[in-house]
Design goal:
The chain has ten helices and eleven strands. It is α/β, with parallel strands linked by helices. The protein is globular, with a radius of gyration of 19 Å. The N and C termini lie far apart (43 Å). The structure holds NADP nicotinamide-adenine-dinucleotide phosphate. This is UDP-glucose 4-epimerase.
């Protein structure tokens, strides 16, 4: 394998996404050679613009390849000469689609396409971005502390969304592939809770749209009876890179979550206190009971990978600041 100074090559799938553009940024800042896939090369300029805003001036270590999770085309080119693959791309719709297969099929088949191509090209390790959706969406939350041993049960739970199903099914299929057909390819999985933190270049995601923008523009006028566990996008990238490089990460899942949990009421109160200048449209919400607060352990990533996530207030304030100063 090439040594770190002379450019280890990493493929990032889904470079147009909120997590994708932050991942490319950190990899370039750390001296990696980066390839990224986009569904359409027409979006290349928006990524370059976002990276320029963050101080990247030399793009000689970044290349773009068109590839869709629903097609075999170009995946062999995308993984060619890569040491590692960070597979982030997956549909994350704000609304539950009428046909759940619109989300499930690209998530599952896309992950399998990326794994097969990576195995055939001799990639060392794939880090798959799954979600806490694949961990803790079907159990009674009361008094349970969720860990990487938990799985969302898509067979017997009726009220889970297409997205939650897609992430669970895709991750299970990936582990099965590695076990049966991996032929030495390593897999590590990251299971983030809601990802917040700064949007760069106006590239947002459903988490920011629902968890911050809907509050700021006043669309959210009641407190949903669930809470949000929060992690900063910059820390999720850091965890992907740690998981990509650490010898003990192979074959493991890692929950990406900062400490604690917030209801939408808590988020509104934080914004009103810390950023009153941005809260003129915010609706007044009611608090909800502590029984809705989901407890999640982030010990595994902290212990094995020495991961040290920032606190959720900092992430949420970075979100509001980036959205309000770059509307
Ligand atoms: P995002 O901004 O919506 O990014 C999703 C990415 O997937 C985009 O680049 C999108 O490309 C790509 N994609 C979707 N369908 C595709 C297809 N058929 N072929 C190729 N690419 C496709 O969301 P994100 O928050 O950055 O999500 C990145 C990853 O993190 C996803 O796997 C998501 O499930 C996971 N995750 C996110 C959160 C969160 O709170 N944000 C939490 C846990 C896990 P286009 O630009 O072309 O649509």
């Amino acid at each position: 394998m090439k040594n770190l100074q002379t450019k280890t090559t990493v493929l990032v799938t889904g470079g147009t996404g909120f997590l994708g553009v932050h991942t490319i940024l950190q990899l370039l800042q750390q001296g990696f050679e980066v390839k990224t896939t986009l569904r359409s090369l027409a979006k290349k300029d928006s990524i370059i613009k976002a990276l320029e805003k963050e101080g990247i001036t030399d793009f000689s270590s970044l290349s773009f390849i068109e590839a869709d999770l629903m097609s075999d085309n170009n995946w062999d080119q995308a993984v060619k000469d890569c040491d590692y693959v960070l597979h982030l791309a997956s549909p994350f719709p704000a609304q539950n689609p009428e046909d759940e297969n619109e989300v499930i099929i690209p998530a599952r088949d896309g992950a399998l396409r990326v794994l097969k191509a990576s195995r055939d090209a001799g990639v060392k390790r794939v880090v798959l971005t799954s979600s806490f959706a694949a961990v803790g969406y079907s159990m009674n939350t009361k008094d349970h502390v969720f860990t990487e041993s938990d799985w969302t049960d898509t067979d017997t739970s009726s009220n889970i969304s297409a997205y939650v199903k897609s992430k669970t099914i895709a991750e299970k299929s990936a582990w099965k592939f590695i076990e049966k057909e991996g032929n030495g390819l390593e897999l590590t999985v990251i299971n983030p809770v809601g990802i917040f933190g700064p949007a760069i270049g106006n590239i947002t995601s459903t988490s920011l749209d629902v968890g911050v923008s809907s509050i700021l523009n006043g669309t959210l006028n009641y407190t949903p009876s669930f809470t949000m566990n929060i992690v900063d996008v910059r820390d999720v990238v850091d965890l992907h890179i740690k998981a990509m490089l650490h010898p003990k990460a192979s074959g493991e899942r890692f929950i990406a979550a900062s400490e604690g949990v917030m209801s939408f009421y808590d988020i509104v109160e934080l914004f009103k206190k810390e950023r009153p200048q941005y809260t003129k449209n915010i609706q007044t919400l009611e608090p909800i009971g502590k029984e809705f607060y989901k407890k999640i352990s982030n010990e595994k990533a902290k212990t094995i990978l020495q991961w040290n996530p920032r606190n959720h207030e900092e992430s949420l304030l970075a979100s509001i600041d980036s959205l309000m100063t770059n509307p």
